[in-house]
Amino acid sequence: MNIAIIGLGLIGGSLAKAIKLHTGHKVYAADKNSDVLSAAVDCGAVDAIISDTKQLGIMDVVIVCLYPGDTVDYVKNNAGNFKSGGIVIDTCGIKSDVCCALNDVAAKNGFCFIGAHPMAGSEKSGFSASKADLFDGASFIITPADGSSPAVNLISDLALQIGFGRVVTAAPEYHDKMIALTSQLPHVLACSYVLDADAEHHRGFSGGSFRDVSRVAEINDRLWSELFIENSEPLIEKIDNLINNLSLFKEYISRGDSEKLRCLLASARAKKESIDK
């Protein structure tokens, strides 16, 4: 197939490298940074550069790896350029708004849009941080309008071929609810944690716990602020739940209520053990 990747950041660059490593497909790419495009060609991650959006008409699959708002704009602006019967997917960390905006656009213009979210990443960003094994064993979530179409099967097979461990199908709203818990809330927590005034003095006093909790605070502020706001309702619900749980710890510790504190800790341990089985 001819596969186009729009945006060669961490995810787009890693997809390009994984596709070239594991398949015989030809990879084309577009990016606003000409140096990134040159680097991608030089390292063999990309076969050719897209210099004209009319080239999208020969692409069997177009993978748009941009921020949510930019993704919607790109697909809408190029709706007439995509190959008839071709497949367009995104990689955004939110799905409801993106799918709502683009499912109808695809239907009206004769191409298939499949919402997608590769569940892998890094605290680093940009093409220089991309790697072919980023997705090894990870989940690839899809939120298709039609869950049984040949296009869905093709994208699912491609995901498994390039290293993903599983393909998970979900409704966009359910995806956003779960991502608020498993991805967005940990970033909120990590950022809140390192904003403590004493965090800058951690050296000599910190070990694995500090590193684990603070790791994802090394954050792309533009991207994550957009993701947080676009998914505000489910994320706020999860933040409220976290605040309620923290309040219980604060209450029991301030009262010196060791029995209730032990019960709370035991409940957390049991929950962790059950979800890891």
Description:
This protein is of the alpha/beta class. The chain has ten helices and eight strands. It has helices at residues 10-22, 34-42, 68-77, 96-109, 150-161, 172-194, 208-214, 221-230, 232-255, 258-276, and strands spanning 2-6, 26-30, 48-49, 61-64, 87-90, 112-119, 139-144, 166-169. It has an eight-stranded mixed sheet, with helices on both faces. Helix 5 (150-161) links the parallel strand 7 and strand 8 (166-169). Helix 6 (172-194) packs across helix 9 and helix 9 (232-255) runs antiparallel to helix 10. The longest helix has 24 residues, at 232-255. It is elongated, with a radius of gyration of 21 Å.
Question: Mind sketching the topology for me?
Answer:
Blueprint: E1 2-6, H1 10-22, E2 26-30, H2 34-42, E3 48-49, E4 61-64, H3 68-77, E5 87-90, H4 96-109, E6 112-119, E7 139-144, H5 150-161, E8 166-169, H6 172-194, H7 208-214, H8 221-230, H9 232-255, H10 258-276
Parallel strand pairs: 1-2, 1-4, 2-3, 4-5, 5-6, 7-8
Antiparallel strand pairs: 6-7
Helix pairs in contact: 3-4, 6-9, 9-10
Please, what is the oligomeric state?
A: single chain
Low-confidence parts, pLDDT < 50 over ≥5 residues? none
Supply Rg. 21 Å
Structural class: alpha/beta
| Portion in helices | 40-55%
Largest sheet descriptor = 8 strands, mixed
Estimate the mean pLDDT confidence: 95
Number of strands: 8
How do the helices and strands follow one another from N- to C-terminus?
EHEHEEHEHEEHEHHHHH
Molecular shape: elongated
Distance between the termini: 39 Å
